[in-house]
Task: inverse folding
């Protein structure tokens, strides 16, 4: 079956969404990711959506779900690389992805995750939302 | 108003939703929509195609490329013979869902287009028409 | 269907006479723009047009036929250049209409039978009217395009995004914000954020006289879209009246960082980007 690959980068997992996702693929990704967070003891998840030409409420919901589940499993999620046209459309649609952290690109996302984890280790972290 | 192109596509599976997105994108490009306009109409099409599949138990979409004077537009009409929507006003509110969605499909796609028209009859089916002009 | 009128034959045989008269006519016309165009250029254009016209008219006078395409393309060319030079529509169309008299003169001299004469003059006048109208339309279209392009350029010029510092952009807005302009502003800023990788953008509205609900909402949407992309915005320069309006309108700015002046906003931005580099990237806006 077709799957979106999940890459391990140290303590982080990187998912690069490259195809126009159909709904089943999105659901599979959600399952795969939660499994991998536990298995790889990941502290953070980066979802790179810079190739996505649209994000609709379904994909938006999937991203939100991944972030919530990751948080339960003690991992932070950062969505990186959303395109301007996609962002404008998503705002108009009424979706603001509350509780999901965002970064301009993968490097910035890694920085952000490192910051979060450091902060949490110091015991004064706060969770967005 | 002139119709430049007029076609009908089925919506029976989640692959068809992807197909509808691709076709809408192609047609929006053909109508020389700006990137933001393309993204808006494709996103609305994705929402409504999913509603047709999930709530309307499948149906079809008619897509029309229009021209009126120097204005160019795309019109999409989603038709299903599903259960219909008992309370339209409610269904059009942000956050209203009978499933486990976010209830943004109808209200959100309305904000993404210039024209929006919906007809629904309980037990008979639902028709949603949207159009966006460049 | 018109019978092959004499027009075709006459323009072929009398080419030089017509050209001379026609150029003469144009040079004497009140619509001549010696300031915008040299005489030699006018002569050259007239010669080329008459050549193409003569060729096309041999096959009939329906300008919808493909045989007329070279003529229309040429008209398109000179119309475009005249629009850019600043000709008015009637100045441009004079090019065609001034051809009437010279043509009438040679036709009258060549056609003796009054019935034929009327037919020939009729064909000629309708043909030139069609071409003249075609030029007018082209002129109008071209001018609309030019205006449209200028408007767009103006919009872009009037929304300059500047890089203040590494990772910090500023967008000083000046003048009235309408919905269309705000939209352009929004798209420009977001595009620049991607290009520069800026983490914080300061939208300064000191120079904006009033803010209505729609504009306030556009601003908020910009901020929300930037956040989705992973960048923060600060709105600065909110004057007291505007603050009041915003509150009256019921627009919620509590999720957005606001500062009184651009300088204050810049300080905050420096602090935040500095903190990101050295210590912690997580100290973003709360929310
Ligand atoms: N074609 C349809 N046939 C029957 N009911 C529909 C149809 N389209 C929408 N509805 C009803 O309207 C409600 C709202 O639709 P809307 O698309 O806004 O939200 P949703 O599909 O539940 O969630 P999502 O945010 O994921 O789209 C749906 O929950 C459903 O009850
Ligand atoms: Mg829906």
Result:
């Amino acid at each position: 079956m077709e799957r979106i690959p999940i890459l391990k980068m140290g303590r982080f997992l990187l998912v690069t969404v490259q195809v126009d996702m159909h709904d089943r693929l999105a659901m599979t990704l959600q399952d795969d990711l939660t499994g991998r967070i536990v298995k790889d003891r990941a502290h953070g998840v980066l979802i790179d959506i810079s190739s996505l030409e649209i994000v609709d409420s379904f994909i938006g919901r999937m991203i939100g779900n991944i972030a919530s589940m990751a948080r339960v499993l003690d991992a932070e999620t950062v969505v990186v690389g959303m395109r301007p046209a996609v962002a404008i459309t998503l705002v108009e649609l009424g979706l603001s992805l509350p509780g999901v952290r965002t970064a301009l690109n993968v490097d910035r996302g890694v920085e952000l995750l490192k910051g979060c984890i450091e902060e949490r280790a110091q015991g004064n972290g706060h969770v967005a939302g | 108003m002139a119709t430049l192109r007029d076609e009908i596509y089925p919506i029976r599976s989640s692959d068809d939703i992807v197909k509808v997105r691709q076709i809408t994108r192609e047609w929006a490009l053909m109508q020389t929509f700006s990137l933001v306009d393309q993204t808006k109409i494709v996103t609305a099409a994705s929402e409504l195609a999913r509603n047709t599949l999930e709530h309307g138990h499948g149906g079809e979409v008619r897509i029309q490329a229009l021209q009126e004077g120097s204005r160019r537009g795309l019109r999409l009409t989603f038709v299903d013979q599903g259960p219909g929507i008992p309370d339209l006003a409610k269904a059009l509110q942000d956050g209203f869902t009978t499933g486990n969605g976010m209830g943004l499909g109808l209200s959100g796609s309305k904000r993404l287009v210039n024209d929006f028209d919906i007809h629904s009859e309980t037990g008979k089916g639902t028709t949603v028409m949207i159009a966006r002009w460049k | 269907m018109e019978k092959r009128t004499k027009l075709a034959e006459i323009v072929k045989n009398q080419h030089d006479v017509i050209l001379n008269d026609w150029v003469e006519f144009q040079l004497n016309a009140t619509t001549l723009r010696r300031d915008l165009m040299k005489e030699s250029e006018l002569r050259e254009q007239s010669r080329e047009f008459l050549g193409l016209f003569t060729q096309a008219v041999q096959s009939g006078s329906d300008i919808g036929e493909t045989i007329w395409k070279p003529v229309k393309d040429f008209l398109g060319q000179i119309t475009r250049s005249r629009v850019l030079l600043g000709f008015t529509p009637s100045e441009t169309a004079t090019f065609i209409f001034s051809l009437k008299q010279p043509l009438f003169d040679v036709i009258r001299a060549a056609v003796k039978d009054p019935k034929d004469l009327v037919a020939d003059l009729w064909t000629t006048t309708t043909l030139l009217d069609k071409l003249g109208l075609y030029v007018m339309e082209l002129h109008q279209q071209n001018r609309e395009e030019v205006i449209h392009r200028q408007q767009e350029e103006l919009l872009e010029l009037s929304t300059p995004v500047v890089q203040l510092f590494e990772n910090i952009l500023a967008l000083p807005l000046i003048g009235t914000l309408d919905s269309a302009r705000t939209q352009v502003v929004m798209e420009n800023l977001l595009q620049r954020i991607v290009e520069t990788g800026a983490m914080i953008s300061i939208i300064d509205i000191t120079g904006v006289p009033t803010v209505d609900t729609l504009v306030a909402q556009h601003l908020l949407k910009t901020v929300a879209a930037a956040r989705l992309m992973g960048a923060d915005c600060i709105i600065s320069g909110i004057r007291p009246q505007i603050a009041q309006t915003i509150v009256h309108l019921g627009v919620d700015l509590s999720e957005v960082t606001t500062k009184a002046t651009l300088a204050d906003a810049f300080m905050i931005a420096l602090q935040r980007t500095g903190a990101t580099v050295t210590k912690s990237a997580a100290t973003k806006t709360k929310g």
Notes: Chain B has a mean pLDDT of 95.
